[in-house]
């Protein structure tokens, strides 16, 4: 795959990711949900940017996470350029490009959203607000895709989780997260093809 095609894939993922996030951010109040199907919902949440809303504690936790991600994206970008230069498998190049695009998409939220949007807690957010909710590098990542395929109480006879309420699939994510997961999935499922020269 050529560098131009890899750039196009990255650009496409970033555009879809950011347009979907901006749409949800400016048309939904935090926590608002639209049921598309019983098993698919648009549910607006924001998080610090780690999986399942995990946070790095402390005053500078969010800043440390954002700076780490920026360095990681530079490393992934180098890996992508090197893979293309050495004419590695298209499986590998597509996977790296998807991971790069997804990481970059969530970094955009972390770096810029705090200074261009106002708060979504009780009102619809406005873009380029004179009263932003945060500061540079402290933006919250917008998530919206929710697939509660099954929800209910597990049978009491099951060890550990028996009798407890359970939801599958309870993660809420965005296009950038899907790109990262797809890229990692390609590397795992097509490992031999991805790393074959």
Compact description:
The chain is 49% helix and 15% strand.
Key descriptive features of the protein:
197 residues, alpha+beta, four-stranded antiparallel sheet, two-stranded antiparallel ribbon, 5 helices, globular
Write the element-wise H/E pattern from the N-terminal end onward.
HEEHHEEEEHH
Count of helices?
5
Structural class: alpha+beta
Helix content: 40-55%
Classify the beta-strand content into a percent band: 5-15%
Biggest sheet: strands, sense, closure? 4 strands, antiparallel
Please provide the count of β strands.
Answer: 6
How is this structure best described in words?
This protein is α+β, with helices and mostly antiparallel strands and 197 residues long. It has five helices and six strands. Strand 1 (33-37) and strand 2 form a beta hairpin. Helix 1 packs parallel to helix 3 and helix 3 (90-116) runs antiparallel to helix 4. It is globular. The model has no long low-confidence stretch (mean pLDDT 91).
Describe the protein's topology.
Elements lengths: L2 H25 L5 E5 L2 E8 L13 H25 L4 H27 L24 E6 L3 E4 L11 E4 L3 E2 L1 H15 L1 H4 L3
Antiparallel strand pairs: 1-2, 2-3, 3-6, 4-5
Helix pairs in contact: 1-3, 2-3, 3-4
